[in-house]
Amino acid sequence: MPQDGALPASAVAGAAGRPLGFYLHVPYCATRCGYCDFNTYTATELRGSGGVLASRENYAEMVVEEIRLARKVLGDDPRRVETVFVGGGTPTLLDAADLGRMLGAVRDEFGLAEGAEVTTEANPESVDPRYLERLREAGFTRVSFGMQSARQHVLRVLDRTHTPGRPERCVAEARAAGFDHVNLDLIYGTPGESDDDWRASLDAALGAGPDHVSAYALIVEEGTQLARRIRRGEVPMTDDDVHADRYLIAEEALSAAGFRWYEVSNWATSDAGRCRHNELYWRGADWWGAGPGAHSHVGGVRWWNVKHPGAYAQALSEGRSPGAGREVLTDEERRVERILLELRLAEGCPLDLLAPAGAAAAARAVTDGLLEPEPYAEGRARLTLRGRLLADAVVRDLVD
């Protein structure tokens, strides 16, 4: 990774024709959830080598420095930014003014496209009505709350600190603050969760009135507290059949409430409610990820930052890119990634992306009820409901 972060000419060629987004990572959390393996830190103050301070108090300025670096690296790139997504961690542990400063740097250095989508994730316990009003005043257009479950015993297994009912109130507060677009994140398949618990969570989420719901199957990552508890036999592991049943329950409830899936784990009430930033990822567009451990992609070049906030701060203080490494994707790798990602979308992926073996697998998948026959006849591979349950297997067949 060059110290100045310079990109090869191939990465910026034709950039004007591709959408550009920014992901801004905030690595701080009040507590660590038992299932989480994200690049997060619970300490409010961290030091890196050379004594460079990496704390919540000066974090926004570090991200601003990387945004300025992005401007230098991308040079005279004429694109305005179409989406900004602040994730974490818990971004709303920072003062709303700090999130506004980070957004302001993107606006100052690149400009925001008309109608740009600007999202922040939020822990329900970390915001109040005034905080949400300040976010809206700063230019945020969308907020995503981590709800996970409406049942206390499920939240306890996940080590979530918010109380049941608080995420639903947050939706109302966000609406009152002027947010048209609000998401609730849910997790299904937590050890000890029943079908009735999951239905109750869906009912509570839908009753709150968001226009977007994300529902993810719990993945138990090695090295997490939850993985250790399962290994010790303290809580049971949930199997794939349970995950499939919960997904079907979600699809039924969300569809009945007027939501439509547009990605395997995401539903919205309208096209305007879809998360346009995530669609950049799924469609292989360009985005710059700023912050410790953040990943970026521009024109087939992917890179990632150093993980520790202290090392991140040290690099920027010395005028260096915080990038830890990068890879230049081959045409074949980019083709495979398009299949992997676009097949998850409701629009599906073009059949002309498939190699002969993959095309033969797609024909079999139609016969097996995994791909929709009408889109297939029109040249696209689109998952059926059964295909969504087996999406990873379908992708493997089409890629092979």
From TrEMBL:
Start and end residues of each Radical SAM core domain: 14-260
SUPFAM superfamilies with a match to the protein in the record: Radical SAM enzymes (SSF102114)
Keywords attached to this entry: 4Fe-4S, Chaperone, Cytoplasm, Heme, Iron, Iron-sulfur, Metal-binding, S-adenosyl-L-methionine
InterPro entries, alphabetized: Aldolase_TIM (IPR013785), Coproporphyrinogen-III_oxidase (IPR034505), Elp3/MiaA/NifB-like_rSAM (IPR006638), HemW-like (IPR004559), rSAM (IPR007197), rSAM_sf (IPR058240)
Subcellular location: Cytoplasm
Primary localization: cytoplasm
Signal peptide: none
PROSITE patterns assigned to the protein according to its UniProt record, in alphabetical order: RADICAL_SAM
Transmembrane segments: none
SMART domains (alphabetical): Elp3
Function: Probably acts as a heme chaperone, transferring heme to an unknown acceptor. Binds one molecule of heme per monomer, possibly covalently. Binds 1 [4Fe-4S] cluster. The cluster is coordinated with 3 cysteines and an exchangeable S-adenosyl-L-methionine.
Family affiliation: Belongs to the anaerobic coproporphyrinogen-III oxidase family. HemW subfamily.
Protein name: Heme chaperone HemW
Organism: Streptomyces cuspidosporus
GN (gene name): hemW
